User: Which sequence fits this backbone?
């Protein structure tokens, strides 16, 4: 399984006609606090992308939400009907998304050949104009418009569900 790359993300966005985004290049960020320092003062939701797995280990869930908001696993299970959900393991991340821990973003779905990930976006951030992510490498932060993020997900056949976490 090849690891995701920033070039892969750029190529795919170009192919989809999504070209109105900004990227900040910065030293490798190992925490969201570090990443935030490198992009301080720029508009855009600081997101976290949670990669979760269900009890069967065949079902995976991606939840995109505001980084400041705690993840409520019980509420997530109530809203989605998912059972016994837990954080996916690092080897799941690598197998399913071609990503290392700390670099999880929707762009990892480019590597999900099994197509076994259901994507959810928290209602809180849907109306925000810009979302920020690491585009498969933690030495860049991409600022992508929310409609373009949703277009990307739909075009890759991971149409997201909006849930109110």
Assistant:
């Amino acid at each position: 399984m090849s690891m995701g790359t920033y070039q892969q993300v750029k190529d795919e966005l170009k192919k989809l006609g999504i070209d109105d985004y900004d990227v900040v290049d910065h030293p490798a960020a190992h925490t969201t606090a570090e990443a935030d320092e490198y992009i301080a003062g720029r508009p855009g939701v600081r997101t976290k992308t949670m990669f979760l797995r269900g009890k069967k280990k065949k079902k995976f869930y991606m939840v995109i939400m505001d980084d400041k908001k705690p993840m409520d696993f019980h509420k997530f299970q109530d809203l989605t009907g998912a059972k016994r959900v837990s954080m996916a393991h690092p080897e799941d991340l690598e197998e399913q998304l071609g990503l290392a821990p700390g670099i999880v973003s929707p762009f990892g779905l480019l590597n999900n050949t099994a197509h076994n990930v259901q994507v959810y976006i928290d209602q809180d951030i849907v109306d925000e104009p810009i979302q920020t992510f690491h585009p498969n490498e933690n030495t860049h932060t991409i600022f992508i418009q929310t409609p373009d993020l949703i277009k990307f997900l739909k075009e890759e056949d991971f149409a997201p569900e909006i849930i109110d976490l």
